[in-house]
Design goal:
Blueprint lengths: L1 H31 L4 H13 L1 H12 L3 H27 L1 E3 L2 H22 L3 E2 L1 H21 L12 H4 L2 H33 L3 H13 L1 H12 L3 H26 L2 E2 L4 H23 L1 E3 H12 L8
Antiparallel strand pairs: 1-4, 2-3
Helix pairs in contact: 1-2, 1-8, 1-10, 2-11, 3-4, 3-8, 3-11, 4-9, 4-10, 4-11, 4-12, 4-13, 5-6, 5-11, 5-12, 6-11, 8-9, 10-11
Length: 311
């Protein structure tokens, strides 16, 4: 067990080390393309920080552990929107946002969660389900692109310096992403071993442990972005990761090998994800900011997700 724990920690260390690098490089690459910071966080950074979940989905599905795929996707969604975002706000003080943008992001995240829950409520994910989830993500990206053309989503400034270094940013993004994938592969194999040794449900272990491990990138991104008052990056990454986790990442594994689940736990946890996403979106859009007291509430909402594991 000690070997598995050490290997799991090593995988987590790789995720911790490479995630800030891929975010920084991909963010700079997006700036060179003159994309609004919120869209950068939503699409580029959101996908980048969801790579661990994508790798986990593929590996867990191929090895016949569908519970890990569902547990990590739903668990990461709940962890990111409540615990990770809440802790970052508690530490840094507050985060601000535009009401229209918050409602747009929250709406997309809720829609993605509803799509994901509707797929696995029957207890399994077929190849057709996986394909539909991936197509749903692509449709959401297209919708985001259309809305992103509106005036309040356009970048306010342009920096010609970024345009001259596109190849450099692309290379840094590529090798950093490779490091994330390696870390995720190691972590998921060790999680499978730990689950077998401890006799704990793969879904529950993934929900509690893997979701926090793969959400480390989102935490440090949110922490540094809020500190530098780059609120759009933090907000876009949190919501963007949630959208990607319950559609793209959860669907890509079953597209290769169908998943089955041993209980209705994923359904109840998925419904809870939809509920807290709506609540946090409402609170954020109403005041156009979240403060420390809101962060505490978000952490409490995360803790209240644990009873879902008993169903």
């Amino acid at each position: 067990m000690i070997v598995q724990l050490l290997a799991f920690m090593f995988g987590g260390t790789l995720l911790y080390y490479f995630s800030p690098k891929v975010v920084k490089a991909s963010s700079s690459l997006a700036k060179a393309l003159e994309v609004d910071p919120l869209i950068i966080g939503l699409v580029i950074v959101g996908i980048g920080t969801s790579l661990p979940e994508i790798a986990n989905s593929i590996i867990s599905s191929v090895t016949g552990h569908g519970g890990i795929n569902a547990g990590n996707a739903i668990g990461s969604g709940i962890t990111q929107i409540s615990l990770i975002f809440g802790l970052a706000i508690i530490i840094q003080g507050k985060v601000k946002g535009n009401k229209k943008k918050i409602l747009f992001l929250g709406g997309c995240a809720m829609l993605a969660a509803i799509l994901g829950v509707s797929m696995f409520q029957k207890g399994y994910l077929s190849r057709i389900d996986g394909l539909l989830l991936i197509i749903s993500y692509l449709i959401l990206l297209y919708f985001i692109r259309i809305v992103g053309r509106r005036k309040y989503f356009r970048p306010e400034t342009e920096d010609g310096v970024y345009k001259t270094r596109i190849k450099e940013y692309a290379w840094k993004t590529a090798y950093s992403l490779a490091g994330i994938v390696v870390g995720a592969v190691i972590a998921v194999y060790m999680l499978i071993d730990l689950s077998r040794l401890l006799g704990i449900s793969e879904f529950i272990l993934s929900f509690l442990l893997m979701s926090i491990n793969t959400s480390i990138p989102e935490f440090f991104i949110a922490l540094s972005a809020i500190k530098e008052k780059e609120y759009a990056i933090a907000i876009g990454d949190i919501f963007g990761s949630n959208i990607a986790d319950v559609t793209l990442s959860m669907g890509i594994g079953p597209l290769l090998v169908p998943n089955t689940f041993s209980s209705t736990t994923p359904l109840w946890s998925g419904l809870y994800l939809i509920a807290i996403t709506g609540l946090i979106t409402y609170l954020f859009s109403r005041k156009e900011k979240l403060e420390r007291k809101d962060g505490v509430l978000m952490v409490v909402l995360y803790l209240l997700s644990f009873p879902m594991l008993l169903f």
